[in-house]
Description:
This protein has a domain at 7-194 and 226-253 and 295-316: NAD(P)-binding Rossmann-like Domain (Rossmann fold). Helix content is 43%, strand content 15%. The protein is built from 13 helices and 13 strands. Strand 2, helix 2 (51-56) and strand 3 (61-65) form a beta-alpha-beta unit. 47% of the residues are buried.
Amino acid sequence: MTRIFQNLLVTGGAGFIGGNFIHxxxxxxxxxxxxxxxxxxxYAGNGESLSDIARDxxxxxxxxxxxxxxxxxxxxxxxxxxxxxxCHFAAESHVDRSILAPDDFVSTNIVGTHVLLSAxxxxxxxxxxxxxxxxxxxxxxxxxxxxxEDTPYAPNSPYSASKAASDHLVRAANRTFGLPVTMTNCSNxxxxxxxxxxxxxxxxxxxxxGKPLPVYGDGLNIxxxxxxxxxxxxIWQVMxxxxxxxxxxxxxxxxxxxxxxxxxICALVDALAPALPDGRKREELITFVKDRPGHDxxxxxxxxxxxxxxxxxxxTAWDGGFEATVKWYLGNPAWxxxxxxxxxxxxxxRQYFGRPQx
Length: 358
Ligand code: NAD
Ligand code: DAU
């Protein structure tokens, strides 16, 4: 049986994957209901990423400036918009930040998820709470093997520990209280609208600007890269057709060392952007720096379950998706400048704060 949603709350919709997901719902999935984007607009949130959706779907897209830790605002929003399902992206998402300052990771990722689950339990005829999680909860792999849904949790960073805790709360809400839930644990995403602190956009922009390209440790850590739209399609398929209470692993079947990723970016930026003034090739900017503490060596996903049960497989070839991503960053300097500017975020908060909502 396919689930149909009328009023979907998307938390963290102003961030990278949440923003791509809302684009996907309106532009590709043919979603006919209303989307309420609930986002606190932290440094990582940018309402501008959805200005085209706000313009083209004024009756079916609503932005609410709110914090998932604020139980009163969460409850009022669910009631006001008749929310019947939640897709939960909102989180502190950057591992390096979680090492420097873990507090917000604990409060947003764990307490925030708990607040949302409690509020959802109070909604009559609530259809689904979908939790977007990460493969990092499984820890680090040796050179062989894959993360499966039954791989024991072994998180190594404050970020992944906080996501693991949130996964357990979601599972408990289903097993103890009967809340309908589904969950996806995904590998590294790449694509448009990713905040330039993460490896791929950081390296693209530094390469463009002729800055050093920091590679942690020996650069041989492996990630399983997935184009963000493929992830969005997986989430939507699980939300509509996934089994209640089940978890699905999502991955790109695309393992690369960080050094391979960085070299590929260098070659693409050399080909697509003006040469550096001093004539150097971008690869010469690669700078090996001190390793990330607790740095997981390898992630790789076995996505056989979602393929078998729902027919999902990654569709975007690495070369095509990657070149499109580099071109997107080169072609959107205004977006880049805005997300890098704190002044812009302050302006955005003022725009939304107190603005009447549909
Ligand atoms: P992101 O950092 O780009 O965006 C996070 C969004 O959440 C931002 O818009 C931010 O403003 C919002 N937010 C943060 N704290 C909030 C709060 N307290 N209340 C309301 N909104 C808040 O993150 P992303 O990369 O898009 O990741 C989205 C989700 O997907 C996260 O849960 C992350 O753990 C998970 N995930 C990410 C990846 C990846 O490769 N990026 C892979 C697997 C899973
Ligand atoms: O696996 C899914 C996870 O992927 C998500 O849950 C996280 O939210 C997301 O941030 C991402 O985590 P990573 O730590 O893998 O992503 P990041 O882009 O920070 O780093 C990718 C790899 O590149 C990692 O091995 C660390 C390395 N790295 C990163 C940065 C920022 C560098 O070598 N240099 C850098 O400057």
